[in-house]
Design brief:
The complex is a heterodimer. By secondary structure, chain A is α/β, with parallel strands linked by helices. Among the domains of chain A are: 144 residues, Rossmann fold (3-Layer(aba) Sandwich); 108 residues, Roll (Luciferase, domain 3), CATH 2.30.38; 82 residues, 2-Layer Sandwich (GMP Synthetase, Chain A, domain 3), CATH 3.30.300. Helix content of chain A is 31%, strand content 26%. Chain A is globular. The termini of chain A are far apart. By secondary structure, chain B is mainly alpha-helical. Chain B has one domain: ACP-like (Non-ribosomal Peptide Synthetase Peptidyl Carrier Protein, Chain A, Orthogonal Bundle). Chain B is built from four helices and no strands. In chain B, α1 packs antiparallel against α2. Chain B is globular, with a radius of gyration of 11 Å. Chain B starts with a helix and ends with a helix. Classes of the chains: A alpha/beta, B mainly alpha. At the A-B interface, α10, α11 and α15 of A face α2 of B.
């Protein structure tokens, strides 16, 4: 039984040492380079006395960054990835939750990394040049269980504090195996990665790449603005598989790129993280009639994705794209408000059960207890399920269909956002006394209403200090006073209705 | 040019678009901005920017964008 994800890397490095594992296009690393680099970093960290604790990686997206992840895992620690695009306040909030003792950076980000106040900050290049001590790494491996964590990924939290999802070897192995079967990955797979490394989304490419000896290209972010150039890149590197957020796919189809050029090697298109508008989905199907399309669905808390739908039938005109069926070894429970199984066709909260469940939120037992709960269908022994807060139902094919969010958590441009976090940030800015954020789903706009004497542009700039770009409100609207409901609560419903008229 | 500058300023009020020259290379315009720009320019100037013209060279400055709009307008 495989108990450690490093086994993927080590097996493939032995079998295909000189094959390209990860590349930006310009710069790449082979499997043996990744493995040796990771083992060297692991040795260094272990000799520094680090074990079973977070190590922060603050580097640009590059094969070295992924190598650093595995270096951290070699040391028996778990990685947390920060990104230069993250606002400093968000980084500080993450570091406050983690209280890490060590950080790995690159020369470009070193200054910023050092300013964050972590005790020890090292340069990747120095660590990767360390001598590997196999006996030391072997003794760490023997101590480890497959329930030991390998990463913490931070998602948006409703109180303004991001929540760190802790995932272990076992759930990531389970995910890698079942995802690979469902999407039929192989050694021939050539991925183009789009998603940032500080989320769990890139596991879809990174882990199967190590398992099979496939190859992943990290597409330069700038190309996603220029669809023809992007497709040229896909063709240059003979990319056959992409797992991208819907927004990135729409960028290509909506700007008419398929009239100019087609991604001629692409045979597999997986998408997820938000609803794919049918018109754009149909443009993709028409452009690549031979390719397989997959809708993926799942929360970070259940390790990456949990469900998939292979587009093997024609959808009715007004039919939403189903999220389909769970991966093998994952069970979906559709639960009513009373904690009973929803009847056929009835809506219920989507809950997950199985090895896919992550360990919970780092340093946050309250939030963990709210979302990871005893299976209400099983009163007999401890068994946790994860409550997604998403509402779903089954269609007549027995496929799961996503209906909406239960609370104020939204999906905007592929990102999961708690509107409460935007409000919390607004309330930290000068000249804001009340704040309410709503989402105009039809126009895809985040609207922030506020009361106070601050100017709209000044507030937007101030919000940039606390929030990543994708969370910034599209529209700011100053009000003399917030509308209230009869019992004096902020009247979100009215504001949401008004938002469509702004 | 003024109409174009107004569209650009709506996206990033803090940038001086009259003089900025590396809007793409400096990471000022991201993919969201590009879509918004294409849509707004198509509407405001009654042109259709084809995908082939959506390349960094045409979006690095207001002057480059204006040249593109004028070229499309003549066609």
């Amino acid at each position: 039984m495989q108990k450690n994800i490093l086994t993927y890397l080590e097996n493939t490095a032995a079998r295909l040492p000189d094959k390209l594992a990860f590349s930006t296009g310009k710069e790449g690393m082979t499997f043996s380079e990744v493995q040796r680099g990771a083992a060297a970093i692991g040795t260094f960290l272990a000799k520094e006395g680090l074990y079973g604790e977070p190590v922060v990686i603050f580097m640009d997206k590059h094969p070295r960054t992924v190598t650093a992840f595995f270096g951290v895992i070699y040391a028996g620690c778990f990685y947390v990835c920060l990104d230069e695009k993250m606002p400093e306040a968000r980084m500080r909030s993450i570091l406050e939750t983690l209280r890490p003792r060590a950080m790995i950076s690159d020369s470009k980000n070193l200054k910023k990394a050092q300013a964050l106040g972590v005790e020890r900050v090292w340069l990747y290049d120095d660590l990767a040049a360390s001598e590997i001590e196999s006996a030391l790494l072997g003794s760490i491996r023997r101590r480890q269980c497959d329930t030991d964590p390998i990463y913490v990924v931070f998602t948006s939290g409703s109180t303004g504090v991001p929540k760190g999802v802790v995932a272990c070897h076992r759930s990531v192995i389970d995910y890698t195996e079942t995802l690979s079967v469902a999407l039929e990955f192989s050694e021939e797979t050539v991925f183009a990665n789009q998603t940032p490394l500080y989320f769990d989304a890139p596991l879809k490419e990174i882990m199967p790449t190590l398992k099979f000896g496939a190859t992943t290209y990290f597409v330069p972010k700038m190309l996603f603005s220029f669809p023809v150039r992007l497709i040229e890149y896909l063709n240059e590197y003979r990319i056959n598989t992409i797992c991208w957020v819907v927004s990135a796919l729409i960028q290509i189809s909506s700007l008419g790129a398929f009239d100019a050029i087609l991604p001629k090697y692409l045979t597999k298109v997986a998408f997820g993280s938000e609803v794919f508008p049918r018109k754009q989905y149909d443009l993709w199907r028409a452009a690549l009639p031979e390719a397989s399309f997959y809708n993926l669905y799942g929360p970070t808390e259940a390790t990456g994705m949990s469900c998939y739908w292979k587009a093997d039938r024609v959808l009715a005109e007004d039919e939403p794209i189903p999220v389909g069926v769970p991966f093998d070894n994952t069970d979906i429970l559709l639960l009513t408000e009373e904690g009973k199984r929803a009847a056929a066709g009835e809506e219920g909260e989507i809950c997950m059960r199985g090895t896919c469940l992550t360990m919970g939120y780092y340093n946050n037992p309250e939030k963990t207890a709210e979302a990871f709960v005893q299976n209400p269908l099983n009163p007999y022994y401890p068994e946790l399920i994860y409550r997604t807060g998403d509402v779903g139902r089954y269609n007549s094919y027995g496929e799961l269909v996503f209906v909406c969010r239960k609370d104020s958590q939204i999906k905007h441009m592929g990102h999961r956002i708690e509107l409460g976090e935007i409000e919390a940030a607004a309330l930290r800015c000068d000249g804001v006394s009340r704040a309410c954020s709503v989402y105009d789903a039809d126009a895809k706009r985040i609207v922030l209403y506020y009361v106070g004497d601050g100017e709209e542009q000044a507030l937007l700039r101030a919000l940039g200090e606390y929030l990543p770009r994708y969370m910034l409100p599209t529209v700011l609207k100053r009000l003399e006073a917030m509308p209230l409901t009869d019992n004096g609560k902020l009247d979100r419903r009215t504001l949401k209705e008004r938002a469509t008229q702004l | 040019m003024e109409r174009l500058l107004a569209i650009l300023s709506d996206l990033h009020p803090d940038v001086d678009f009259a003089t900025a020259e590396d809007l793409v290379d400096d990471g000022i315009l991201d993919s969201l901005d590009i879509v918004t720009l294409v849509t707004e320019i198509n509407g405001e100037f009654d042109v259709t920017i084809p995908a082939e013209e959506i390349v960094p060279e045409n979006f690095n400055s207001a002057a480059a964008l204006m040249a593109l709009i004028e070229k499309l307008d003549e066609e």
